[in-house]
Specification:
The chain is an alpha/beta fold and about 475 residues long. The protein is built from 14 helices and 12 strands. It has a domain of about 240 residues: Type I PLP-dependent aspartate aminotransferase-like (Major domain) (Aspartate Aminotransferase, domain 2, 3-Layer(aba) Sandwich). Helix 4 packs antiparallel against helix 12 and helix 12 packs across helix 14. The protein is globular. Its cofactor is pyridoxal 5'-phosphate.
């Protein structure tokens, strides 16, 4: 077998083009074979079929690039939970824009490593421009805001707590019951006290409980608020929380992994009033930004807030190189080798502009409200509440929790729909997290019809004597 060609250099594109034709055909064929939002049959069936169709992964004799690509990509696409399907709506699992995926291909082909300038000359400049641009969106009045690219909201939240620890020592975190699980995990990783968890009686942080906690607790405190919870999409009262943290001299971190991109919509930006008052903000553009994972951001109001992350490894950022003008990139992440995820984000922002981004966000939020309207008008379904962003909770009117769970698993096993689940107010709810801007009213109505039919099937099966 000849030495395989490389993706980079002047010859790289010519080598990639026929391979991409094979990949694109395999993606199409796999989606056709799947025929829905996910493969039917459940875990055992999918596992057996995937292993049977892919064959041995390390054969004695290689199968060649086109056969391997066709086999494995087709199997992956056939067995995918495809967020581009309008009935795949369980999680904050976005269907990436085609242009962002194309940019990601370029990033993979060029393969810059963002840990030293000599591995990423132009990519490091692009990342620096992107991060300061996004930080300025969050902190428009700060003199020199900055941001880091992360793998997502979890890493960004961990970095936020790390920076708070470096500012104050073993800081005590306060969060509400609606906070993302990564906050508690970050305290464990960093050796910090477990968070003090206060109530979120209506899905958002209770300011009275926060006031009591801030008044009672001693030592350095960090309040972590949420702008877009994973269960309901609700947004904490950010301005009120910022008033309380300011009055009690506590730091504030806002996890806006889900809701942060609302900044780009003039219509929905007011939901984030107070965001700029945080000491750090998490943003995640592989959610409401339609990027391939990963595309997380941690923003801070002052560039020097990131100085505690500085680290030296002489082969990457020797003092004399830095003094001579080579940028020091090692403090831009706790990771060493990392991809230029800034490229796909920058391509998307430039291609769509503010108007295009606002349109995507507005139509997605509007779809969630339309789904809520359909549920409200259907006597067989019950809506939990009006959506704040694009998450809609609902359940069949006369179903118990066991039946709700059964409905969800039935739709998964049949390959008909991917819905999430959330336990709110003592009941189990089906969760539709809408992130597909191409979903139509007919798609949404069909999704509800599938739920209703599955409910009738579960009720009939449950009443059948055994």
């Amino acid at each position: 077998m000849p030495t395989p060609p490389l993706a980079g250099g002047t010859a790289g594109p010519a080598h990639l083009r026929p391979l991409l034709d094979t990949v694109l055909a395999a993606l199409h064929d796999g989606a056709v074979r799947r025929g829905g939002p996910l493969p039917a049959g459940g875990p055992d069936t999918v596992t057996h079929h995937t292993r049977a169709t892919t064959g041995p992964l390390i054969p004695d004799q290689g199968t060649g690039p086109h056969h391997a690509l066709r086999t494995l990509v087709t199997a992956l696409a056939e067995g995918a939970a495809d967020p581009a399907h309008p009935h795949c709506a369980a999680h904050l699992h976005t269907p990436p824009l085609a242009l962002a995926a194309a940019a990601d291909l370029a990033a993979s082909a060029l393969n810059p490593s963002m840990d030293s300038w000599d591995q990423a000359p132009a990519a490091s400049t692009l990342e620096a421009t992107l991060t300061t641009t996004l930080a300025a969106e969050i902190y428009p009045h700060a003199p020199r805001p900055d941001a880091l690219v992360t793998t997502g909201g979890t890493e960004a939240n961990q970095l936020a707590l790390l920076l708070a620890r470096e500012r104050h020592g073993p800081v005590q975190t306060i969060c509400a019951a609606n906070a993302h699980h990564s906050v508690t995990r970050a305290t464990w990783i960093l050796g910090l006290p477990r968070p003090v968890v206060i109530p979120a009686p209506r899905g958002t942080m209770d300011p009275t409980a926060l006031h009591d906690a801030l008044t009672t607790l001693t030592g350095p405190l960090l309040v972590t608020a949420t702008a877009g919870t994973t269960d309901t999409g609700r947004i904490d009262p950010l301005d009120h929380i910022a008033d309380l943290t300011t009055a009690h001299d506590a730091d504030l971190h806002i996890d806006a992994a889900y809701g942060g991109p609302l900044l780009f919509s003039p219509t929905h930006r007011p939901l984030l009033d107070g965001l700029h008052r945080a000491h750090s903000v998490t943003l995640d553009l592989h959610k409401l930004g339609w990027q391939p994972a990963s595309a997380g951001i941690l923003a801070v109001p002052h560039h020097h807030d990131l100085h505690p992350l500085h680290h030296q490894a002489p082969y990457l950022n020797a003092d004399d190189d830095t003094d001579a003008g080579l940028p020091d990139l090692l403090g831009r992440s706790l990771r060493t080798t990392r991809r230029p995820d800034a490229l796909k984000i920058a391509v998307t922002l430039q291609a769509l502009g503010r108007d295009g981004l606002a349109d995507l966000i507005d139509r997605t939020v509007a779809a969630a409200h339309h789904l809520a309207d359909l549920i409200d008008r259907d006597p067989d379904l019950r809506l939990h509440d009006r959506p704040t962003i694009s998450t809609v909770l609902f359940r069949p009117t006369h179903a118990d929790d066991t039946t709700v769970a059964t409905i969800r698993r039935t739709l998964l096993t049949q390959g008909q729909a991917v819905l999430g689940r959330a336990h709110i107010d003592g009941e189990l709810w089906l969760k539709a997290t809408l992130l597909n801007p191409h979903a139509t009213p007919d798609d949404l109505q069909h999704l509800l019809t599938l739920v209703t039919h599955a409910h009738h099937g579960a009720t009939t099966e449950g009443s059948t004597p055994r």
